[in-house]
Amino acid sequence: EADHALYIAKASGRDALKVHDDELGQRAQLRAQITHELASALERGELSLHYQPVFGADGRQPVCAEALLRWQHPRLGLVPPQAFVDVAEDTGLIVPIGAWVLQQACRDAMTWSAPLQVAVNLSVRQLHSRGIVDDVRQALALSGLPAHRLELEVTESALAQEAAAADALDALRELGVGLALDDFGTGFSSLAYLQRFRFDRLKIDRAFVLPLQQLENSAPVALVRAVIELARALDLACTAEGIENAGQLKVLCELGCSALQGFHLARPMADAALRDFLAGRHDPVGTPT
Ligand code: C2E
Ligand code: MG
Ligand code: MG
Ligand code: MG
User: Fold this and answer.
1) How far apart are CA 73 and CA 211, in angstroms?
2) From CA 235, how far away is CA 199, in angstroms rounded?
3) How far is the CA of 21 from the centre of ligand 4 (A)?
4) Strand runs (DSSP E) across the chain, as ranges?
5) Cα–Cα distance, 39 to 93 (Å, whole number)
6) What residue stretches are annotated with the EAL domain (predicted)?
């Protein structure tokens, strides 16, 4: 990001640098404000979950819905997770927020008309907190959701502190929930993680889906094909995320990717809209929420 700022400043002269300084100041201020307000957002009921359906290999049958955290801020409007999840991690607030996400997602999943899996994202901080196994166990017990319908998504960066992460993942696996490695391919040692930790699913990061166009002998296709074959060889399911157009979808179907997710298939939506969608009453490729 710093390089990017420098580039913009160089490209547009000295004044631009000053403008950018102001912008950075504003951003720091916003961050401080978010930290302060996030602390009470949970109690005030300003957090909610949206759900993005994930489809089977045919791109039609919904098989899962990923819970995505949203903050309805009184002045800023709907704040996306990138703007506050890292703040929540730094302050430790992600632990109570994460426990709430787990409970809400399991409870919502019990109201769906089809027994889809529900996927919940876990952050590093949660994985290294002692209570994570109890939080998951409690969310299942309170909602009555069978463990096999819950899948926990962990990004590669969460696995940096290996020993603690391995223990937590083993304990979670024993509960019977699924484990997915999110944003696969973007970390520094993706393959090493596959060797050390047991997952049920890989989620190919959308950076690899983005350049897919036609099933020709291009490098982007070769890469994704190799990841899908890797998953198959290791007996893992494989989801492609970030599918934004028909061309990408076609390539992924032809490559035999087992699950498909992206704006082209369905946008993240409020829980009520998901229920309408599952009942056939709602177009999933609607406006972003
Ligand atoms: P993620 O787990 O990789 O989730 C996928 C993100 O990609 C979501 O963004 C989703 O809206 C977006 N997305 C889905 N399809 C497309 C597409 O076709 N094109 C593009 N450009 N984007 C697409 P969102 O909801 O803003 O979430 C961002 C990240 O925040 C998530 O990435 C996840 O790492 C984190 N996050 C979300 N909810 C939670 C949560 O409850 N707990 C924790 N710890 N992290 C969360
Ligand atoms: Mg995810
Ligand atoms: Mg992802
Ligand atoms: Mg991603």
Assistant:
1) 35
2) 10
3) 29
4) 47-56, 62-73, 77-79, 117-122, 150-155, 178-184, 201-204, 237-240, 259-260, 269-270
5) 7
6) 31-282
Which of 51, 68, 71, 209, when mutated, tests ligand 1's pocket best, judged by the most ligand atoms within 8 Å of its CB? 68
The rounded Cα 255 to chain-centroid distance in angstroms is 23
Q: 55 phi and psi, to 5 degrees?
A: -110, 155
**Single-letter code of the amino acid located at 72:** Q
Q: How far is the CA of 234 from the centre of ligand 3 (A)?
A: 20
CA distance 80 to 44: 18
* DSSP H or E stretch at residue 276: helix 271-278
Cβ proximity of 143 and 177 under 8 Å = no
Amino acid, single-letter form, for residue 6: L
pLDDT digits (tens, 9 = 90+) for 243-255: 999 999 999 999 9
- 69 and 105 Cβ atoms separated by less than 8 Å: no
The per-type count for the chain, helices as H runs and strands as E runs, is 12, 10
Report how far apart, in Å, the C-alpha atoms of 92 and of each of 35, 41, 85, 122 are. 11, 14, 10, 13
β-pair type (201-204, 178-184): parallel
